[in-house]
Write a structure and sequence with these properties.
The complex is a heterodimer of chains A (179) and B (195). Chain A is mainly β and 179 residues long. Chain A is 0% helix and 56% strand. Chain A has one domain: Sandwich (Jelly Rolls), CATH 2.60.120. Chain A contains no helices and twelve strands. In chain A, strand 9 (124-133) and strand 10 form a beta hairpin. In chain B, strands 1, 3, 5, 6, 7, 9, 10, 11 and 13 form a nine-stranded antiparallel sheet that branches. A four-stranded antiparallel sheet of chain B has the order 2-12-4-8, with no helix packed on it. Classes of the chains: A mainly beta (179), B mainly beta (195). The A-B interface holds A 1-7, 33, 35-36, 38, 69-76, 78-80, 105-111, 129, 131-133, 137-141, 170, 174 and B 9, 12, 17-21, 23, 44-45, 47, 49, 80-84, 97-99, 101, 104-107, 129, 133-134, 137, 139-141, 143-145, 161-165, 167, 169, 190, 192, 194-195.
Chain lengths: 179, 195
């Protein structure tokens, strides 16, 4: 149990198209906790991307993995599977943290994203685990991991959004290990 | 050497924060049928540390949890969940990763398994953590994730991953941990509220 995570900032999204955090300094490890993330549009996915120092836009090069355990409310389907459609191979798109989420009034996702040493001169690694209410009434436990393939520049900003449409929710930024 | 100011950082002290996590309660099991906590209302993340939980019964009961919603009776809320595991036997006779349909739930109201088959040998048990997100929400379902590790009766190390949601918009007020048979012979569970 790590009880020395420091809460750095908190953003509450209400019909937001994206949420950005622009201070990724002072810590070796950052954790973003996403709570009650409810999309405005059904069957859209929660995603993130980063921006490197001196560059423009959330479009860094990512190589990643993604797998999920899924079980539906009807009890007719349960599985664990790698999802090639949600990984990236040197892609510059937003990285999937969930598969398609439900947008019902009581439907949401929650979980964490860890970003390691964004100021380093190595590639920058990350991993996440999100549990979400799938658009087709499944519980989905999604695991993503990978690296941002930019050793030359520090990562200075991170952005969260749905694949389309706006969202509600709370995102908290924590730091661990003073750098 | 006195631990001084580092004591709280090393061991935690109830009600004292050394960061974003506030240790709220520690329960030490002693042949108890279950271990129960009243959930805090002030936190959007509640984390449970599970340490060396040892069953009284043999062979291999499952370690489980359930919750009770406000103004309702009993630990029987509706859960839809997933469960998968990685494992490796001491004699190298088996290893792998697999989904386990026997330990998920599809709108079930039973106790949710966090670790399947805990060995009851005196030097064994299971450990891990469970995170409840936004348990006091009155708008959304409540998600949880857990990861546990322990030894099965067949001398196999195993790590279980469960995630799911408690399908109610009523705020949750209590949580209970127990084994599927017998008592919780020994072990410790700590509850933190995360700012």
């Amino acid at each position: 149990m790590s009880d020395d995570w420091k809460l750095i900032s908190e953003a509450t999204a209400s019909g937001a198209s994206s949420v950005e955090f622009t201070d990724l300094t002072g810590f070796k490890i950052f954790k973003f906790v996403l709570i009650d993330v409810n999309p405005a549009t059904d069957s859209e996915s929660l995603q993130f991307q980063v921006n490197a120092s001196g560059q423009t836009g959330y479009n860094e090069t990512i190589t990643s993995t993604y797998f999920a355990a899924n079980a539906n409310e009807a009890g007719t389907d349960a599985n664990i599977a790698y999802v090639t459609a949600r990984d990236q191979a040197q892609g510059t798109g937003y990285q999937w943290l969930t598969s398609t989420q439900g947008s019902g009034a009581d439907e949401c996702s929650a979980g964490e994203l860890h970003l390691f040493n964004p100021a380093s001169t190595y590639v920058k690694h990350f991993y996440s685990r999100m549990n979400h209410y799938h658009a087709s009434d499944y519980s989905a436990d999604s695991f993503c991991a990978g690296y941002i393939n930019n050793a030359a520049s520090a990562i200075t900003e991170i952005s969260f959004k749905m694949s389309s449409g706006n969202f509600d929710g709370t995102i908290k930024q924590y730091g661990l290990v003073a750098g | 050497m006195p631990l001084g100011a580092h004591k709280a950082a090393l061991f935690g002290v109830a009600g004292v924060s050394t960061g974003s996590a506030v240790l709220l309660e520690t329960a030490v099991a002693s042949d108890d049928a279950s271990i129960e906590f009243t959930l805090p209302t002030a936190y959007k993340q509640v984390k449970f540390g599970l340490y060396n939980l040892h069953p009284s019964a043999a062979p291999g009961p499952d370690f489980q949890f359930q919750v009770n919603a406000d103004s309702q009776t009993g630990y029987n809320e509706t859960i839809t969940s997933t469960n998968f595991r990685t494992y490796h036997a001491e004699d190298d006779s088996g290893s792998g990763v697999a989904y386990r349909t026997g330990d998920d739930q599809a709108q079930g109201t039973s106790y949710q398994t966090l670790f399947y088959e805990v060995d009851d040998e005196d030097d064994n048990g299971c450990c891990g953590e469970l995170i409840l997100y936004s348990p006091t929400s009155t708008t959304y379902v409540k998600h949880y994730v857990s990861r546990t590790v322990g030894m099965q009766p067949n001398a196999t190390t195993k790590s279980d991953f469960s995630g799911g949601y408690i399908n109610t918009t009523t705020n949750l007020s209590e949580i209970a941990f127990k084994f599927s048979s017998g008592n919780v012979d020994s072990g410790t569970i700590k509850m933190w509220g995360i700012k």
